[in-house]
Amino acid sequence: MSDLYELQLAWELGDTLPGEVLDDLRWHMGLQGEDPLDGDLECEPLLAARGSASRIGGALFGELVRGRRGWSVTVRQEMHVEELPELHDLLRRLAAHSPSIDPVGQLRHYEDHVPELLVIQAGVVARQPLEVAESEPVAFPYDLF
After folding, report:
1. 23, 92, 78: which is closest to 48 by C-alpha?
2. What's the whole-model pTM score?
3. Into how many domains does the chain fold?
4. In the chain, N or C terminus with fewer CB closer than 10 Å?
């Protein structure tokens, strides 16, 4: 059993992020500088991987853009269980300034089929488990594929 997770974020961060939080996010995405902003030289960027995923399949990516409604971040990354506390800290800092109350992403152990939603509750990001309903598969009403 491996300790890898798939992280997906699609988060409208708004336009009220303080400069130091935005700079920290940029550093973790590999978009700014060589050294971490907080001086922790043992820290590695959490959201900077690009290209083929080694265990979860698919591609790893990250994009940070500024649009009409402020900053938006979209990422798909492989996360090791040892990185989760650092990830939680980064997401907590973002959530403190986020206008969103919707789910902002998902986290899935790479061997599981059902992810946990990442939702903002009281200014922090919480993991909300999903359950698989025991039912027959539902076919699309149209032949889309």
Report:
1. 78
2. 0.85
3. 1
4. C
